[in-house]
Design goal:
There is one protein chain. The chain has 71 residues and is an all-alpha fold. It has a domain of 45 residues. Helix content is 66%, strand content 0%.
Length: 71
């Protein structure tokens, strides 16, 4: 199965965690059936996308912190 061009472009530079979170955000945005649709288009398993949704939910509930040093 060939990747959807959008996913092929977006997934290439991302590490595994970033891929999960990106695909999870796409699935959540679609709504009902989003996990299956994103899984089919990206070639990534539904289990991985579901794990990404859990990580995304956790990120949304944590206070944001900067990745840059102070000063």
């Amino acid at each position: 199965m060939e990747l959807d061009p959008k996913f092929n472009l977006m997934l290439f530079p991302l590490n595994e965690k970033q891929k999960r979170i990106y695909l999870a955000s796409e699935a959540v945005q679609i709504g009902y059936g989003g996990i299956s649709k994103v899984s089919n288009l990206s070639g990534v398993s539904r289990v991985v996308i579901t794990k990404g949704i859990k990580e995304l939910t956790k990120l949304k509930s944590e206070p944001t912190s900067s990745s840059r040093k102070q000063g």
